[in-house]
Amino acid sequence: ATMETWRVGDACLKPETADEVHLLDDLHALVQPGTDHVQPGLRPLALLATSLRPLALLATSLRPSAPVVLLNASLGDEAVVSSRRCGCALEDLGWTTHLSRIRSHEKLTAGGMTFLDTDVIRVLDETLPAHFGGGPTDYQLVEDEARDGRPRIRLLVHPGVGPLDPAAVSRVFLDAIGAGTGAPALMACVWADADVVIVERRAPIATVSGKILHVHSEERGAAVTHP
Question: What is the CATH number of domain 108-224?
Answer without folding.
Answer: 3.30.300
